[in-house]
Specification:
The complex is a heterodimer of chains A (about 180) and B (about 425). Chain A is α+β, with helices and mostly antiparallel strands and about 180 residues long. Chain A has a domain of about 110 residues: OmpA-like domain (60s Ribosomal Protein L30, Chain: A). Chain A has 6 helices and 4 strands, in the order αααβαβαβαβ. A 4-stranded mixed beta sheet of chain A has the order 1-4-2-3. In chain A, helix 4 crosses helix 5. Chain A starts with a helix and ends with a strand. Chain B is mostly beta strands and about 425 residues long. Chain B folds into 2 domains: about 120 residues, Rossmann fold; about 260 residues, TolB, C-terminal domain (Neuraminidase, 6 Propeller), CATH 2.120.10. Chain B has 3 helices and 30 strands. In chain B, a hairpin with a 2-residue loop joins strand 7 and strand 8. The longest helix of chain B is centred in the middle third of the chain and has 17 residues. Chain B starts with a helix and ends in a 6-residue tail after the last strand. Classes of the chains: A alpha+beta (about 180), B mainly beta (about 425). Chains A and B meet through helix 1, helix 5 and strand 3 of A and helix 1, strand 18 and strand 22 of B.
């Protein structure tokens, strides 16, 4: 009886040991980030030939070379204030919204996983609210902006390291 | 983990673990032992071999998991009635559990159980019940509770239930299970995040948060009828439900007025009242057992820490000052201490703090350990942990001596919470 138990124990532990050899980060890194809106991806893309069309017809939101192609702001750990590096981006979106009263944006706050799920829900909301305030100061109307928080629930990258965490601490500007 | 370290780890596990794999939704490992383990012998019950569920095995597994008992092998001795017990045959055993299971004419089963004091040679407790054959596990847990209570003086929690979220790819399931992981029942399954399940004090309802409506919304669902109602669905986030001890109100967190602030609301969504006015992040409220206070997490001091606020007005008081950040406070059932998640140097620990001494005690070795909750007897703490790259359930005794890890068969476990005692 005891022998059987012990063998069972060893077996389970051996299995566990095997499973633990797989490094955690691989799973996270192997998954490609949803890069559609990632500013880095946009920067890396070769610049398309300038379109010879009349400027009136172009919605600058669709211009990959426009600053408006950047749709995320990034934060240090446990910080919700828009950082200096991202201010030009938010200001450009504020200008765009004030000039396009028919466009609406949803601000989606996100966090890294170093917090409780509930605290991070609050932190993500504050990040989104911080961007909203800047958009309003820049001329956007309250009715054009919705803010929500995903907290730590929708990470762009899933490893337990700063290289993933820094991608997850962000507010996405999602035009609707 | 280095090779040597891993070997040592395996050795440790082999020495101290008991695994209980049969048909469990969760595989369980136990590490450590109580300071004074009580030697008990659980004799196989007469007739139990005829049933799918062996009562003596369930009881043995329950007692082993608590870490407070040393199970003595009956070694073939099989008394089923007190008159069949030869006490001289049981040296070094403090108590002896014997009994029988018998099929009745009406298709039910009769279970008889006695706990004998092997030193004083007297009966400590006994019970005879009639039940359906599919209730044998529940009866075994009740027997475990009786043995635990008689021998330790504390109420047993083997008959209580736990709730948690199981996430497998995109599917989130809100699950209710026995405290040993058996009898999993899916309360809700959706392709969006579910978080923060909270038991009503009578165990009949769960409050929780989902992202089904694209933002966080608070629901209350009946476990009897499966009917559910929206409690709060304001713009922004609606989250962190906690029941008052009388079950008549919920503390929730709303962001509709700026920041994350605490509110009270009735479970039907009526009578909303704001409690905190910090404008900062105030979240994870938890009622004191007397219903007079809320513990909560707040960043009002510059980093997330635990605070306590009286419900009749009056200022909030900061409770934690230790370095790092502190989250997810829960009162102990006796109200004398609280448990929380302590983040320092990139690791989460489960810690308790006594209200009187203000001393923090780390109960775990650190890792990815979050969302602790007390068992209703205050002796065990359930929390979310991580092992082998997966979210798992773990428990630690409130003195930090006995640790358990429970591995799901598939997916990641998160946001566990221990349910209340059920009135029988």
């Amino acid at each position: 009886m005891m022998k059987k138990l012990l063998i069972g124990v060893l077996l389970v532990n051996l299995l566990a040991a095997c499973a633990s050899q797989k490094p955690k980060e691989v799973a996270g890194e192997a998954k490609p980030a949803p890069a559609a809106e990632a500013p880095k991806a946009v920067e890396a893309a070769p610049a398309p030939a300038p379109a010879p069309v009349a400027p009136v017809a172009v919605d600058p939101l669709n211009d990959p070379n426009s600053i408006l192609a950047k749709r995320s702001t990034y934060y240090p750990f446990d910080v919700y204030v828009v950082q200096d590096a991202d201010k030009p981006v938010v200001e450009a979106h504020a200008r765009y919204l004030s000039e396009h009263a028919n466009r609406n944006v949803r601000l989606e706050g996100n966090c890294d996983e170093r917090g409780s799920t509930e605290y991070n829900l609050g932190l993500g909301q504050r990040r989104a609210d911080g961007v909203k305030k800047m958009l309003q100061v820049g001329g956007a109307k309250d009715s054009q902006i919705e803010t929500i928080s995903y907290g730590e629930e929708k990470p762009r990258l899933t490893c337990h390291e700063e290289k993933c965490w820094k991608e997850n601490r962000r507010t996405d500007l999602n035009y609707r | 983990m280095s090779g040597i370290k891993k070997l040592r780890y395996l050795g440790l596990l082999a020495l101290f673990c008991v695994t209980l794999p049969v048909h469990a939704a969760l595989n369980i490992e136990i590490i450590g032992a109580g300071e004074h383990q009580i030697p008990v012998a659980i004799v196989p019950f007469a007739g139990e071999g005829k049933f799918a569920q062996s009562i003596s095995q369930v009881v043995s597994a329950d007692l082993a998991r608590s870490g407070l008992f040393r199970l003595v092998d009956p070694a073939g001795k099989a008394p089923h009635e007190p008159r069949e017990v030869v006490y001289a045959d049981w040296p070094g055993v403090d108590a002896l559990a014997i009994g029988s299971v018998e099929e009745q004419i009406n298709g039910r089963v009769a279970v008889k159980f006695r706990l004998l004091d092997a030193v004083k040679q007297t009966e400590l407790v006994g019970q005879a019940v009639s039940a359906r054959a599919d209730q044998l596990r529940a009866i075994a847990h009740r027997i475990s509770d009786m043995i635990y209570e008689k021998l330790t003086g504390d109420a047993g929690v083997f008959s209580t239930r736990i709730a948690y979220i199981n996430r497998l790819d995109k599917v989130n399931r809100l699950v209710v299970a026995d405290s040993d992981g058996y009898g999993e029942q899916t309360v809700l399954a959706i392709n969006e995040t579910i978080m923060s399940p909270a038991w009503s004090p009578d165990g009949s309802h769960l409050a929780y948060v989902t992202f089904e409506q694209e933002h966080a919304v608070v629901y209350v669902q009946s476990l009897l009828t499966s009917q559910r109602k929206v409690v709060a669905n304001f713009p922004g986030s609606n989250s962190a439900p906690a029941w008052s001890p009388d079950g008549k109100q919920l503390a929730i967190v709303l962001t509709r007025d700026g920041g994350s602030q605490l509110y009270l609301v009735r479970p039907d969504g009526s009578d909303l009242r704001r409690i905190t006015f910090s404008g900062e992040i105030d979240t994870e409220p938890n009622f004191s057992p007397d219903g007079q206070y809320l513990l909560f997490t707040s960043d009002r001091g510059g980093s997330p820490q635990i605070y306590r606020t009286p419900l009749d007005g009056g200022p909030a008081e900061r409770m934690t000052f230790e370095g790092g950040n502190n989250f997810s406070p829960r009162y102990s059932p006796d109200g004398k201490s609280f448990v929380f998640a302590h983040l320092t140097n990139g690791s989460f620990y489960i810690a308790t703090q006594d209200f009187e001494t203000k001393q923090m005690q780390l109960l775990t070795d650190g890792g990815w350990e979050k969302k602790p909750s007390f068992a209703p007897n205050g002796k065990l703490i359930l929390f979310a942990s991580e092992a082998q790259g997966r979210g798992i359930l773990a428990t630690v005794s409130s003195d930090g001596r006995v640790k358990q890890r429970m591995f799901p068969q598939a997916g990641d476990i998160r946001e566990p919470t221990w349910g209340p005692f059920l009135k029988q």
